[in-house]
Amino acid sequence: MEYKDGTTLDQAKTLPQSQRNRLVYSLMKLLFAEIFDFKVIQTDPNYANFLYDQTLDKIVLLDFGATQTVTSDLCEKFRTLLQATWRDNITDIENALYDLEILHRSFPRNLKEIFIELFLDVTEPIRRKEMYDFERIQIVEKIQERIEEFIAHQKTIRIPDIDILFIQRKIGGLFFLARYLHVKIDLNKILKKYL
Predict the structure, then answer these.
(1) Residue 34 in contact with residue 40, Cβ under 8 Å?
(2) How are beta strands 50-53 and 40-42 bridged, if at all?
(3) Which has the closest alpha carbon to 169: 11, 35, 22?
(4) What is the pLDDT of residues 14-69, one digit of tens each?
């Protein structure tokens, strides 16, 4: 163990816009490198697991207890989903979600449609292929609007494997961080490398 200088990411809200943008851009770049290059991902996006050293303009990662290996098969399935999302092809997105078993045949039709709608909302920063204001993401509010439908089917739908859930948790956590920090970035500059 060693001491590292920095502040937790929730305190980065007071930083200037350009620094917040750079900070989250770096975290997103790391996220996709973890999945596609390193094939090892730290899956806990808790703000306390990261420090930002403003003096050095560096991100410090803490707590590797939730680190997970990404198999080559899972990596390629996520790449297929990323490519379908980039092309904004709903049929291919749906097929990729089924292949990852994020969607499952146990989903009733109405729940599947809600899930696809939520997926399209949260992936708008990828599908728009431009500078995106993450404050626009309203996924939490939309889930709350539909929570009764999810609860009604909780015993009949199958949830994805734990390794996929952990990766989803990390991706979702960073998107929520970007929203919390009111970040405006173009993710597609990062993603072109992985298409």
Answers:
(1) yes
(2) unpaired
(3) 35
(4) 999 999 999 999 999 999 999 999 999 998 888 888 899 988 889 988 877 778 99
CA dist 18 and 185 (Å) reads: 10
- Which own/partner contact pairs does 83-86 have at CB distance under 8 Å and 24+ positions apart? 83/195, 85/123, 85/126, 85/127, 86/126, 86/127, 86/129, 86/188, 86/191, 86/195
What value does the mean pLDDT take over residues 102-131?
90
- pLDDT value of residue 164: 92
Please measure the distance between the N-terminal and C-terminal CA atoms of the chain and give it in whole angstroms.
38
CB environment 9-34: b (16+ within 10 A), e (fewer): beebeebeeeebbbbbbbbbbbbbeb
Q: 157-193 pLDDT, tens per residue?
A: 788 898 898 899 899 889 989 999 999 999 988 999 9
